[in-house]
Amino acid sequence: MGNTGPPRTTSWCSHCGAGLVAPPTGSSSSVRCALCRRVTRIERHRSVGNTLALAPRSPPRTAPSSVMRRELPAGYPEARGKKRAVLVGVRYTGTEYELRGTVNDVECMRRLLRDQFGFPSDGILVLTEEKSDDPYRMPTRENLLLAMRWLVEDCDAGHSLVFHFSGHGVQKLDTVGDEVDGYNEALCPLDFEEKGKILDDEINDTIVRPLGPGVKLHAIIDTCHSGTILDLPYLCRLSRTGYWQWENHNRQPHKPKGTRGGLAISISGCNDHQKSADSSGFPESAAIGAMTDSFIKAVRSEPGTTYGRLLSAMRGTIRDGHGSGRRLLPGRVGSFVRKMIASSSVQEPQLCSSEVFDIYRKPFLL
Asked: Among 205, 236, 222, 93, which residue's Cα sits nearest to residue 168?
């Protein structure tokens, strides 16, 4: 009665935790998750009665933890507390698109997290070119993705995560139709010309989708074209009447871009079509990104501020004269961006979220 063929067995996606159905034959196989589209290797072993049994038969406590732990370099900190952060500053030293101030951005953010929000030193992972003695701390594409996976590893209720990136950002044409403006946003790691950029879809898959109930992520992004860099479904934009209001940017409801129950928020330096800047009037040793500068000043000046007041304070700081040095890529990439994307004269800080909330009442807390 019913299906008399070989029984299909189940396992769980090593990336998002969704259930997987493995084919009934073969000693091993790779199964693509229908939810997150990532591939999980399924190993089988022979059990009593000469039947093939799937291993493992129970899901991991959190979706990606066991797989990521084996991939992480030995030198990565073992974060045991409820607060952890990944801070990335890419200078692109010796190139035609070298930046000032990105390493200073990271150091300023580290002090803010440690001194004002109680992040432990062993819970902060820094990737900059200044860490040249440790190849795993260089902000390459591979290292950046590893660091992102470290950030969300083993997280459960009560975890507060921060991802900060200071460097170049670009746009690429959207070929699948899930972007409102027709472009994907992307981060440029140190080796982006050889290894490629990190698209918003991949960022979403890596640090947004795995967030379970009670986990909170804040991404602080200081790049050009960074408005929707986490590919979150809701964007809070300043209206013509001067109020911040939410827009739904989820063009494909069947393709979820939110979390698994957690909260993901991104605060970025400018709209998707805009360029970011460095604060002007400082020597190189004190240079800092205009967005990072305005964010830190707003947080320090009013502890316990709301998201609405934070955005308004950042906007006011940027419009008070900061930001003459544009962070626009020169060369082929920059030429393409300049031709394709018009830019307004002053960058606008942006807020995106995995869920809608009252920005004038919800307190900002990392």
From this structure: 222
Which two tokens mark 275?
């360029």
Among 224, 236, 270, 352, the active-site one is: 224
- 205: alpha, beta or left? (left if phi > 0; alpha if psi -120 to 50): alpha
Residue with tokens 């890419």: 90
Query: What single string gives the DSSP state of each residue in 307-354?
Result: HHHHHHHHHHHHHTT---EE----HHHHHHHHHH----SS---EEEES
Q: What is the pLDDT of residues 182-201, one digit of tens each?
A: 577 889 999 999 999 999 88
Partner residues linked to 88 by β-bridges: 127, 165
User: For this structure, is 168 an active site residue?
Assistant: yes
CB 199 within 8 A of CB 257: no
User: In whole angstroms, what is the distance from residue 234 CA to residue 100 CA?
Assistant: 32
pTM for the full predicted model: 0.72
- Select which of 159, 164, 168, 218 is catalytic: 168
Contact at 8 Å (CB) between 87 and 106? yes
Contact 35, 18 (CB under 8 A): yes
DSSP 8-state code for residue 124:
E
- For the chain, what are the domain ranges? 9-55, 65-353
Cα separation, 139 vs 184, whole angstroms: 21
Distances in whole angstroms, Cα of residue 45 to Cα of each of 42, 53, 317: 10, 6, 61
Tokens encoding 242 = 């001067």
Question: For residue range 105-144, what is the model confidence (pLDDT) as tens digits?
Answer: 999 999 999 999 999 999 999 999 986 678 889 999 999 9
Mean pLDDT for 273-284 is: 44
Phi, psi of 205 (to 5 degrees): -60, -35
Instruction: Tell whether domain 65-353 is in CATH 3.30.70.1230.
Output: no
